[in-house]
């Protein structure tokens, strides 16, 4: 009997009785990953039974999250809150799937960054093991820190820095090597391209050339994130090109997010027109690219004849 009473006391100590941390995660900066301080003086840390302290039907106030958790039970906890020191695998896809949370992230389309295999929870944490799961995406917090060329795990200033930790010549990440690619292939040459060639990267455009003009909040001095054009979690276009504005193009206004993008035979006009809108209309600048938007030249044909991921055969872009 004394042992039973002692166990009950320990469990009660671990329950702080305050569910304020379960408010809408998009309205708080609190890190949702529990640590060794979980419960009073850390008494709840290492416990595998979440139900010992938390009632399943009241632990979330955000309706869609509360409904998912109520339906699927405590198996959902570790995806957002970590393993609580138990060493168990984090379950991500139990909630982050095309049915329960279809836009967190957008997952439609069969081309994905997990190389067209069925996604697993392990795939998720390979990029997001450090995420604080508070709904406010910050590259320096929410992306796994891979070592740079100096072997240091420095925080990222933007999403592209994360991408370039793998897509480079000199610092392949263990387990993600791309040695089968030719030296100039974009998959491994992208860091050089982004730093020294591509006007979407660190080299600024001037905005003074023939087809100049940008849409919404894009500027010629803008650093364009890789994910503005490439969808990691699902797209119908090859090379992970986004199939709708809402899956990338982060600076566009909300009313443009539903414009579709279809890439056919090297023609990427529907992608380019999301951000590019020439000021002085010439050539085919007033012609619909096929998704309802106008503003780029050479609406038909193969864009890669002159533009190869920003690297042009002539000055400009």
Please describe the structure with a list of short key phrases separated by commas or semicolons.
two-stranded antiparallel sheet; mainly alpha; disordered N terminus; 2 strands; 317 residues; disordered C terminus; 8 helices
Total E-strand runs = 2
Query: What structural category do the secondary elements indicate?
Result: mainly alpha
Average pLDDT rating: 84
Report the end-to-end length measured between terminal Cα atoms. Answer: 78 Å
Approximately what portion of the residues adopt beta-strand conformation? under 5%
Largest sheet: 2 strands, antiparallel
Residue share in helices?
10-25%
How are helices and strands ordered from N to C? HHHHHHHHEE
Low-pLDDT parts are: 1-14, 16-29, 312-317
What is the 3D shape? globular
Cα-atom Rg, whole angstroms? 24 Å
Widest β-sheet, arrangement of strands: 1-2
Helix count, DSSP H or I runs of 4 or more residues: 8
Task: Please explain how this structure is put together.
- This protein is mainly α and 317 residues long.
- Among the domains are: 2-81, no CATH class; 208-317, no CATH class.
- The protein is built from eight helices and two strands.
- It has helices spanning 2-14, 63-72, 77-81, 121-128, 139-142, 159-164, 186-196, 269-272; strands spanning 307-308, 311-312.
- A two-stranded antiparallel sheet has the order 1-2.
- Strand 1 and strand 2 form a beta hairpin.
- It is globular.
- The relative contact order is 0.08.
């Amino acid at each position: 009997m004394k042992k039973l009473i002692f166990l009950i006391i320990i469990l009660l100590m671990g329950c702080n009785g305050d569910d304020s941390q379960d408010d809408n995660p998009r309205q708080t900066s609190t890190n949702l990953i529990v640590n060794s301080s979980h419960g009073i003086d850390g008494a709840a840390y290492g416990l595998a039974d979440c139900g010992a302290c938390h009632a399943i039907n009241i632990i979330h106030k955000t309706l869609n999250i509360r409904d998912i958790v109520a339906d699927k039970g405590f198996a959902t906890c570790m995806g957002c809150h970590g393993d609580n020191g138990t060493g168990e695998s984090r379950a991500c896809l139990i909630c982050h799937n095309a049915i329960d949370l279809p836009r967190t992230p957008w997952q439609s389309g069969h081309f994905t960054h997990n190389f067209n295999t069925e996604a697993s929870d392990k795939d998720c944490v390979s990029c997001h093991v450090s995420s604080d799961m508070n709904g406010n995406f910050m590259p320096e917090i929410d992306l796994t820190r891979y070592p740079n060329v100096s072997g240091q795990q420095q925080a990222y200033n933007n999403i592209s820095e994360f991408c370039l930790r793998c897509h480079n010549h000199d610092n392949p990440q263990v387990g993600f090597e791309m040695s089968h690619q030719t030296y100039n292939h974009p998959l491994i040459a992208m860091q050089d391209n982004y730093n020294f060639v591509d006007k979407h990267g660190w080299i600024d455009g001037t905005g003074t050339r023939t087809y100049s003009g940008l849409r919404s909040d894009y500027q010629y001095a803008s650093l364009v994130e890789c994910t503005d054009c490439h969808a990691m979690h699902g797209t119908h276009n090859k090379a992970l090109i986004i199939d709708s504005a809402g899956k990338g193009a982060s600076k566009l206004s909300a009313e443009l997010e539903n414009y579709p993008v279809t890439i056919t035979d090297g023609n990427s006009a529907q992608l380019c027109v999301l951000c590019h809108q020439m000021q002085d209309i010439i050539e085919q600048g007033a012609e619909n690219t096929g998704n309802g938007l106008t503003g780029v030249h050479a609406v038909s044909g193969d864009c890669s004849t002159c533009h190869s991921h920003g690297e042009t055969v002539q000055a400009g872009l």
